[in-house]
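tool_log.txt
---
The assistant was asked to compare two proteins side by side. It first ran the structure predictor on the initial sequence, then on the second. Raw inputs and outputs are pasted verbatim so the downstream comparison step can read them without reformatting.
(1)
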Amino acid sequence: MNQPTKHLAIVGGGPRGLYALESLYLALHNSDTHKKLKITLFEPFRHRGSGWVWSPSQVDTNWLNITERALQNLPGRPEMRIGETIIPSFPSYTEWLPKEEQNPPATHPDQFPPRAKMGTYLNARFETIAQTLMGSGWLEIIEGGVTKLDYDGRFFTACAKANNTPIHNNDNQDAEHFEISHIDEVVLTIGHQDTELSDQLKSWKAHVAKAKTPLLFTEAYPIEKILEAKIDAENTVAFRGFGLAMIDQIRALTLKKGGRFEVINEETQELTYYSSAEHPQQFVAFSLDGLPMVPKPLNEAIDNQFMPSDEALKTFAKAVHQGACGKHSAEHHYFLMEEIATVVVPVFQKLGDSAWSHDLTDEELYYLIINYLNDQSLEHELLLLHKIPVIEMMEMQVAMATSNGKISLDYCVGQVWRHCQPSIYSEFSYPDLRDNVIAEVIALDEASKRYSYGPPVESIQQLIALHKAGFLNLDFVNNPDITLVDDGWQLESNGKKIIVDVMLNAVLDPPKLVTVTAPIIKNLMESDVIEALHTDLGIRTDDYGYVETPEGKSFIPLAVLGRLSKGSVIGVDAILECFGERIRNWAERSVAQMIDTKKTDG
């Protein structure tokens, strides 16, 4: 049997596409079959394994918001044997690091590497398996994107548009448009996709087209495009958004134009900023709520204060699974608030004098946490007031993150939530709940991300230093009135006004299926192959990642893993989830179906 028995296409060669490829061959390695797979992988970006989000060539001012310590959970690849072919192992991320970086002392500041560093790892990992599989004739890589999928009831045909000439074993294809047919199964592992612009951005785009002089960037990344534009000391720059993308943008527009930060306090990572005449002298940040990202604890020793016990995490995971998929599944999202509160209470009480003082009983604290999670603007003596100046808020949160200030209840809740997130992501997959309850749970998790997806202390100290040096204006941070004027945009808040002539969108669109404009997604929706789980969410899939087909329709061998299946799964933006159990489950199911198939070989 020389010919492969199953032809599978992976659409998207970023981290999830890489792990899908590895997981398929691991499942094949662990099976007792002698059948083979032929895989066609489509990826328009030249750095396969990383995708554009983790590009090894991006600016080093784009940082991860996960510590290298947490990345110890990113597994390596074992050696696999398929027939006479040996697929080499590849180390875990931590094993891949230089020895001196692998196990830093618990009191050393956690390291948040540049995204390019992770991209270098992912690309190297991809190439080692790809070279082996291509050498055996089992993998074909198309350097281009799929625009359309046709399914005739037995096979898929992928219509693709190449960026360059397709590579490896594809010499007869047209260099621009071509088709790959007789595909038995397709898995979509595509990440961030273009979406429809909001009404606000549409109006701004039309304004800029008429005004000519002002600059508008509707996409946060790649930041290289922003750096290539003529943005200098003559410009006043505004950021639409006050999150991680904004921090990357302002870091690039200062450090890449000659500015520099200097540490003046190692214990708190406090910085002073030395400016350059090459960069804008005024930056203005704003968002709908004006709230900053919250720094993660400075190091492992500080972070351990917020770590629930193993028993508490185990009980929590069981409760989440029961609420999501049990016999008596939850009727509303409050079950998750209740379970989080149960975990937080003993952690906060154990902080003792390190926390804001109070005389609440465990029960009173429990209900306060639930009320806070239900309304994060709640005012209480244990909660950081949203009404205080944003610079004061950032300074207080830095103090908490560095053990130089007592800890508020909201900071504790946010850090405990982060430690609970892996259990939420694992146990809330493919929930058996009403769609509106799923949407509410996901909204609750999204609300936690200001804390759980928070940046390093250093990032917030950079913003504080820029503000103190007079370059970052925070007077308009909380939902200012915006008027379009000849010179750009006029922002107004609390009687103050400012005109900006460069506007950078720093808001990343959520994976909301109905707004995605990618041709392949529009094609699949128009042909009724996929449907949204909820108007605010992604594609409806089954427990193995396969698209759920309407009642009365036959199963379609199309799987969706990752960002566009948000709702069926949760935690779609986390790098560790790209190497998780859900992808392994799909791969094992795919190989099992290949073994059980009644089709004749070839």
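(2)
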Amino acid sequence: MSANDQLQFMPLDLDTFTGSERFMAGTRLGAAFSQGMRSYLRAAYTEAIEHFKAALIAAYVDGEEQAQIFERERAIIYLYIGNALAFQDDWEGALREYLEAVQTDPQLAEAHYNLGVSFAAMGQIDRAIAAFKETLEHNQGLYEAHFALGRCYQLADDAGRAYIHYSSACNARPQAAEPRYYMGLMHQSHGAHELAQRCFAEALRVEPTFVSPDPEPGESTLVTRSEDEVVQWYYRLSNALKQQRYEDEAERIYRALLQWRPQEYQGHYLLGNLLARQRRFDEALEEYGKVPPQHRQYVESRLRMSAVLRMQKQTKQAYDLLFECARLNPGNGQLFLNMGKLLYDMGLNTQAVRAFERAVQLLPRDPQAHYLLGFMYSSLGRENWALAAWRKAVELAPDAHSLRFDLGYMYVRRGRYDLAANEFQHVLDHWPEDVETSFMLGLCFKELVEPARAIPLFEKVLRRNPRHAQALYYLGACYLQIGNTSLGKAYLRRYDHLARQSPTTTPGAASARRRNSSATKQSS
């Protein structure tokens, strides 16, 4: 469809008599409205307009109670005046009346639709789209609005939204051929002739008497494009549908592409991703498995397959899959990184370390690789090596705050409270309400003999968690350090009382639990 194509839609009429009988008889308003409708129905539009205007005037000046009309009824009269003008191609006049209708009754869906029709007729596509979308806010199932939006989006070259609204139009009116026909034209204009012919055939199946605007659909507008251009159309349309969360429609397009070109391995990979997101894991594995070793996304497809198998608790199969892939691609660091995670899951820590060391060699700028290697070193008691790995990870990802917390905790274990305080301060700047970071920073200041800086941090912890035993103990000790004996002893008595109620934990034990939890998340 070219940018110069004119969109032509018919204004909608209403069954105005339903609910309006009370002003249809015995009043000047009713008489004028009845005459207007008779003239309208026999296409005497100029005469109809005069009667409708007389009805509006009567509604304002007639004093009879039954002549009073609701806003909905007044909006309907404006709508019919607009229709009468539209049928005479006076779109500016029609637009004025439709605007009166929507201002009088903003809930009248047909008035919004006809407003969109007038904008489309005047070439104001963006405003037409806005009006049709507003229509659907008030009547989600209105066939005409979905079809009109499909046509507008097609003209605007927004294939994804056009496809969605044509599909919605088909759902709203299953026996309608037009949306299927225009969907076919959209496919055809991009060279997807098999999809186009399918749409044309479906249009004639649901409405055998359908006569298209193009007397020979599929012939007069036939275009020739390279196969690569056609393939890109499939991908573009599928991607647009996914972005708008119409995954079923995107799947249909992928499958149509793969039926046409089974060797389109990019399509198998993307379809596998789509199925995996829907947790249709067996189908996803089947699609990933069709990507051959020579294809550029072979490694990525195997990584995805491994992730699916890991989620299904098939850890050994996931590892074997990556091992075979690594034999073909020994220079791919992501393979070794994920192999290390799987080896850790299987409890093979020494082998996991070797895999992470290889990953770091191949991915020297990857902070996660350095972090996981440090975590494994820590698990094996190699704290110096762990510190070196984590320092490198922080250098590469200075905003990785959970990583900084773990590095600070390692410094605490080694008695480097000054370095630990620096890391915990960074974390607290980002997570100012985090209880354990506040506690650990307070602990560092206490050990650095800076009780005045530690006290507000421990108090902050206790405001959030009054039963934090270590914070009570250290807060009492800090107050004793600064000479406030009464307050210090009071906090220590609270600590003793809490300790008698439940077993005590060593300072930093909660932080250790948090560190292990953080490492588990990093490895997943």
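---
observation on (2): The mean pLDDT is 88. Residues 75 and 144 are 20 Å apart (CA to CA).
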